[in-house]
Amino acid sequence: MKRPVVFLVLLVAAMAVFIVVQARSIPRRASPAASRADTTPTASAPSAPGAAPVAASADSTGLVSIRASAQPAPKRDLAEIQRRLADGERGTYIRELLLQRDDNNTRWPDRQAEPLRIWIQPSSTLADFHGSYPVRAREAFERWMRVGVPVAFTFVVDSASCDIPVTWVDKFEMPITGRTLWTRDQYWWIVGSSVEVALHHQSGAALDPLAIYVITLHEVGHVLGLDHTQDDRSIMAARVRVTDLSDVDEHTAQLIYSIPPGSVSKP
Ligand SMILES: [Zn+2]
Fold first, then answer.
1. Which class in CATH covers the domain with range 2-40+52-263?
2. Which residue of 124, 152, 181, 242 could cross-link 115, Cys pair, CB 3.0 to 4.6 Å?
3. Where do the domains of the chain lie?
4. In angstroms, what is the span from residue 24 Cα to ligand 1's centroid?
5. Distance from Cα 218 to the centre of ligand 1, integer Å
6. b/e for 45-69, b at 16 or more Cβ within 10 A?
7. Tens-digit pLDDT profile for residues 44-86
């Protein structure tokens, strides 16, 4: 428990600093990282009973910090990148993602041979925590593993040795139900991430097992480098109204993993 908590605190601290720096240095045009760190919550009109989205998983977009890493520079061929984008972008929301990060693609390095180690907090004393929730969260990671991107997950019991901690929080002080922080390096490789999933809406109403699954599904999309789309049939809509990935989610993830990280408009 100790390590991930420290990790999160550091990451949040780093992020806070980063936001301040961004806010000062780029007054006019929102930088991709700054806009991703914008926590303006989606307007949360209370849904009519019966028509409620399953999870109402509005959240802020993924929060980003940057640190240098020892990852090798990606092999980049701009003409080839643009050809793959042109061939593959139909039926995806990749342009929405690129728009939010100044034309930069963001992804993990290939992690098939060495899967990302996920630690899901196995228990919690928070009200309304249920023993099945870690299983629901794990199923969400497993769902993404079937999409065919070169990132595999393995589940570890030791939080100290994980790449990605998944922890439970009672609720957020804004109308969101999940939050993902990630760190990218100088090449736009994603090099770290953590996920928090709420047990309650901001209002205090408890989330149910399906909502826990759906919220985690959405957050794992952020872990992989996806961001919000206007397409509300997709799991990456800011307010989630579906219970599974759409073809569009899958194709978008496949496309971002078919090209290297970094700019798609500059060499
Ligand atoms: Zn989100």
1. alpha beta
2. 152
3. 2-40+52-263
4. 25
5. 6
6. eeeeeeeebbbbbbbbbbbbbbeeb
7. 323 333 333 444 344 555 567 888 898 999 999 999 999 999 9
